[in-house]
Automatic annotation (TrEMBL):
Listed name of the protein: IS200/IS605 family transposase
InterPro entries found in the cross-reference section: Transposase_17 (IPR002686), Transposase_17_sf (IPR036515)
Domain Transposase IS200-like: 14-134
Domain of life: Bacteria
Pfam families in the record: Y1_Tnp
Length: 138
């Protein structure tokens, strides 16, 4: 089962939900420097706070970023992603006009797609075995 330090509680539930998110820049342009990545992390942390999501880890390279988020069940991951990408795109283009030259046609920073993978806890095989071994009432 989940590590006790990663378990969070809501009003009616106890949960440990983590997702690995990857966002890629439009056209895979290599646009980010350390300065951009530092600001992106700040913006994305603020968006996560608005959703009551914990940004556990953030890192990136010149054309993509990785996020590890701990989110409550009430949060639709797709809505979180749309907000993270939308807010960060808008703010980054406002604060760093030099980024705009890479996107003169499409006024977007990010590719339309993204990666989201569930992470943490026991491997599926272990969870499956655990459930199989539960006693059934006779």
């Amino acid at each position: 089962m989940a590590d006790m330090q990663n378990i969070r509680t809501g009003r009616h539930c106890v949960f440990a939900l983590h997702a690995h998110l990857v966002f890629v820049t439009k056209y895979r342009h290599k646009v980010f420097t350390d300065r951009h990545l530092t600001r992106l992390e700040e913006i994305m942390r603020a968006v996560c706070e608005d959703f009551e999501v914990e940004l556990v880890e953030f890192n990136g390279e010149n054309n993509h970023v990785h996020l590890l988020v701990n989110f409550p069940p009430k949060v639709a991951l797709s809505k979180l992603v749309n907000s993270l990408k939308g807010v960060s795109s808008r703010r980054m283009r406002q604060e760093f006009p030099d980024l705009v030259r890479h996107y003169y046609r499409a006024n977007k920073l990010w590719s339309g797609s993204y990666f989201a993978g569930s992470v943490g806890g026991a491997p599926l095989s272990v969870v499956k075995q655990y459930i199989e071994q539960q006693n059934r009432p006779l």
